[in-house]
Amino acid sequence: xxxxxxxxxxxxxxxxxxxxxxxxxxxxxxxxxxxxxxxxxxxxxxxxxxxxxxxxxxxxxxxxxxxxxxxxxxxxxxxxxxxxxxxxxxxxxxxxxxxxxxxxxxxxxxxxxxxxxxxxxxxxxxxxxxxxxxx
Length: 135
Fold this sequence. Notes:
By secondary structure, this protein is an all-alpha fold. Helix content is 72%, strand content 3%.
């Protein structure tokens, strides 16, 4: 069990650094299905897990490259602090079944929105003036 948890943390850490996704998108389903946790316990544990590594690990590399907007980050963090508290007040009284369904609907919606996003912004002009290359 300890090895599974360590490997899960490693895999999620790579995804956070590589894709910038919230680790909870991977951690919560993994804890529910691999570790057989209740939805509430998985979400609460995910919040505990994500505090230090997300705040320090991947941020360090982005900071070194000048890819962090400090002002926007602080303002959004303040909003997330208040929003996280409000979300917790809403989530804790819900049944695990309803909370799991809500979480699943959120994942489906975000997947759909990312999938149908227009690809126009991925066009890069060809150096010789030909048709833009997709990438």
